[in-house]
Structures are given as C-alpha cells and as structure tokens.
Amino acid sequence: MRIPIKTLKNGFSIPEFGLGTWQMGGRRERNLENDDAADIKAIQTAIDWGITEIDTAEIYADGYAEELTGKAIKSYDRSKLFIISKVYGNHMRHGDVLSACKNSLKRVGVSYFDLYLLHSHNPSIPLKETMAAMDELMEEGLIRNIGVANFNVESLKKAQSYTSHPIVYDQVHYNLEYREAEKSGLLNYCQNNDIFLAAYRPVGKGNLLSSIPSVLQKMCDKYKKTTAQIAINWLLSQKNVITLSKTTNLEHMKENLGAVGWQMEPEDIEFLRKEYPDQKEISDVVPLG
Ligand SMILES: NC(=O)c1ccc[n+]([C@@H]2O[C@H](COP(=O)([O-])OP(=O)(O)OC[C@H]3O[C@@H](n4cnc5c(N)ncnc54)[C@H](OP(=O)(O)O)[C@@H]3O)[C@@H](O)[C@H]2O)c1
Question: Residue 17: beta bridge partners?
C-alpha cells in the first residue's frame, strides 16, 4: 500500500506514518540477546508493505538500532526511503553535532538523512551554537531537513530564530492519553506555523489498548476499526499531525497500516479529544522543554 504523504506550505513532504526503532537492538544499551533477525525482518517487511519512513537515533541501543536499520535497508533503493535520525542531548556542542551525524550516517550506511533531529533541548548548551552546526550539515548535504524532538513552543521559536532553514518537524509524546502537546499550545503553534507535530507513542507502547474506555469502543464500532487503528487515525486525522509506531510483530504492523488512508469525522476527533478519560497533562517519557 502507499502511505499518504502530508505536505507543508513550505513544500516539505513526509509520509504520514512511519516505523520507529526504539527497542530494536536493545534499549539505551545494546542487548546482546536481541533477536536481530526479527528486527531486520520487521524493517524490511515495513518497506515491502509501503512504510518507507524509518525513525532511528544515535541513542537507541547505543547506535545499534541505526546499524540494524542499515542492515535492513541495504538492498533497497535509498532514494525511495525517508530516513530520520537524531543527535542526543549530550552532543549539542558544534563539533559534537557534526561528528554525531557523521557517525550515525556511517552506522546506517547512507550518505544523507532526509530529516535530522535534535533529540531534546539541552539548556546548558547555547541553542545558537547547536543550530549553526545543523545549518552546516544542511550546507554539506549530509541532512536534507532540520527538525527537533520534545521541544516546547519557547525552545522551538528560539531554534527557528537561530537557523536560516525552516524547522519542519517537532517529534513529541502525544496520543489519546498524553495531551501535553495540546495543553501547552505546541499543537496550535505547529498548526499555525507550518510545522509537523510528529506524535510518538501513538498506541502508548500497547498500553492504550489494554483497557478500552467506552468512548474509544464507540468509535471502533462506528468505523469498524480496532482500538490501535482508531488511536493512530485520531492523530493522522488532525491538521499537521503525523505519527510513527514501532513494531516487530507483523500482525501488529498489518493492523497499524489499517489506520492510514481514511479520516475520522471532525466531530469524532473532537469527541475523543474531549471525552477520552484520564488524560495526562505532562509526558512521562520526555516532558517538553
Ligand atoms: N523523540 C523521542 O524522544 C522519542 C520517544 C519515544 C519514541 N520515539 C520514536 O517514536 C517511535 C514510536 O514510539 P514508541 O515505540 O515509543 O511507541 P508505540 O509505537 O506507541 O509503541 C510501540 C510498542 O507497542 C507495541 N505495539 C505496536 N503496535 C501495536 C498494536 N497494534 N497492538 C499491540 N501492541 C502494539 C509494540 O510491540 P510489538 O513490537 O510487539 O508490536 C511496541 O512494544 C519509537 O519507536 C521511536 O522511533 C521518539
């Protein structure tokens, strides 16, 4: 299937649904017992099934998720893939950003990233210095677009003011339960300023699916979709919102793909926005900063 592409007014385009790699190859450290073959197969199946956007980071499994990504994609046409990686908060000094990116490119085995993100805001290092390095990566052709992750409106505005390139993307914890992006005004800011809000943890690592509130069940019945599909589609149906999910389970992948290519009615999006129970105002993964 073809994943629909969303496009900003400035011309930046990205598939609305991608594959995450957090927990592939390990967590923060590489897990030597990891089933690498299953992770590689999941990435390859995703591509075969039309998911061409893959999100990884230098911090995932201490770089090993990037290596697994590289092993998985090496027989595919690079130009048809959309690869995202991220520089971690401890590498925000000018020279560290440049070397982190080059090391990530080497691990993935590609000559450029379609999108490169600051993984979080590190207030102890001047953002101006970090953004100058991101500009340099753009000018060297090592990255094609600049984004951030876990940035609040204030940091995002600062980052915008320090680069000569548009910031096209802020990847944050946002799903039916976690609403920091709404409450803080970030979603609104992205929608009004031509930036994608990329919602990570769309199915709450599967937890969102374990006990199903009646309001969610009502939408599953109305649209004849599963809870995962409604949870993902609720994000995709919103202006400037895209998402990505990690799975190595091919049944889950198939199910998640059933969330793309259709839209919920605006009144149902607002119904879930208002009525979904026990909403949390602050992320328990990485609060915006
Ligand atoms: N920038 C950041 O700070 C940040 C933070 C978190 C995540 N991310 C990125 O965003 C991606 C997505 O977030 P995430 O992986 O944390 O959360 P997620 O996609 O909501 O959850 C992934 C977990 O949910 C399970 N799952 C996926 N689809 C399912 C389904 N249909 N039914 C039941 N279980 C399902 C997966 O297990 P199975 O493998 O068994 O299916 C996996 O354990 C990450 O992989 C990462 O690339 C970025």
Answer: 243
Q: Any idea where the domains of the chain sit in the sequence? A: 5-211+235-250
C-alpha 173/C-alpha 207 separation (Å) is: 14
Ligand 1 and 227: CB distance under 6 A:
no
Q: 7 CA distance to ligand 1 centroid (A)?
A: 24
User: What's the pTM value of the predicted model, to 2 decimals?
Assistant: 0.98
Write out pLDDT tens, residues 87-110: 999 999 999 999 999 999 999 999
Contact, 40 vs 46, CB < 8 A? no
What digits encode the pLDDT tens for the residues 149-200?
999 999 999 999 999 999 999 999 999 999 999 999 999 999 999 999 999 9
Report yes or no: 17 and 243 within 8 Å, Cβ to Cβ.
yes
Pick the CATH number of 5-211+235-250 from 3.20.20.100, 3.40.50.1980, 3.90.470.20, 3.90.1140.10: 3.20.20.100
DSSP 3-state assignment of 242?
strand
C-beta 177 within 6 A of ligand 1:
no
